[in-house]
Structure formats: C-alpha cells, structure tokens
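Input structure tokens:
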C-alpha cells in the first residue's frame, strides 16, 4: 500500500469513529464535495457490512495511488453468498438490508474478493474525478 493514509482494525463500537477518520483522511488526500460524501458513504457501507456479517478481525486501509484513492475493508467472515451478486437492483423499498453492495458499486469503483476465509471489499475513486 503506497503512501498509507489510514490503517486500523474496527468493531461495532468504532464504526462512527472510522467514518470520521475516513472523511478527514479522504479530504486531506484531495476529495471534496459530493465525491467526498459518496466515497465516505461507500466506505461506511462496507464497514457496516463487515460488522454486521463478518467475523473479527475486521480491518481497513486507505491509501492514495497515482491514479486513485483506495480503501480496502476486510473481515474473516463466511464470505458473501453468490445470489447477492446476481441482483441487478437493490431489494424492495421496505425490505431490511440488501442495498450495501449495490450502493457501494454506485458510489465508487467496487471490487469484491473472498470466500469462506473472509471478504475483501476494495473501493476506489479515480483521482481525475476530484481534481
């Protein structure tokens, strides 16, 4: 991770703190306005999902690459069920949950890797979007 801006483990009690740290670090890296808000929301969704569905340890790292600001969120949970990736749109309006990955993909470049040993969510925003 070239030029790490932030690296930490988190749990349910630190979700709000993580969101504030990500917002500050992303702002310091050059994000502003709606792009900053979208990126922070996408990261927040990933962190919340890791707390809700993952198993400790849960961690996140934020860094700037030449072409992008990148955040990886990891957990040691059971992985994401394949049917989640088959949805074209989020679940119905009043259903509980089911929107996190859809929203992350809408707000940032999303890459999901994982399986039975855990999940890695990688979110990135091209630098040219916030120059």
């Amino acid at each position: 991770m070239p030029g790490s801006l932030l690296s930490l483990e988190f749990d349910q009690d630190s979700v709000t703190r993580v969101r504030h740290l990500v917002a500050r670090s992303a702002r310091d890296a050059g994000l502003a306005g709606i792009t900053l808000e979208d990126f922070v929301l996408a990261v927040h969704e990933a962190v919340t999902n890791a707390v809700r569905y993952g198993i400790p340890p849960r961690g996140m790292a934020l860094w700037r690459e030449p072409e992008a600001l990148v955040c990886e969120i990891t957990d040691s949970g059971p992985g994401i069920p394949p049917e989640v990736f088959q949805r074209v749109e989020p679940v119905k309006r009043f259903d509980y949950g089911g929107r996190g990955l859809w929203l992350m993909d809408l707000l940032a470049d999303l890459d999901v890797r994982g399986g039975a040993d855990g999940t890695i969510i990688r979110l990135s925003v091209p630098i040219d979007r916030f120059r």
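Residues 33-53 form the longest helix (21 residues). The longest strand covers residues 118-126.
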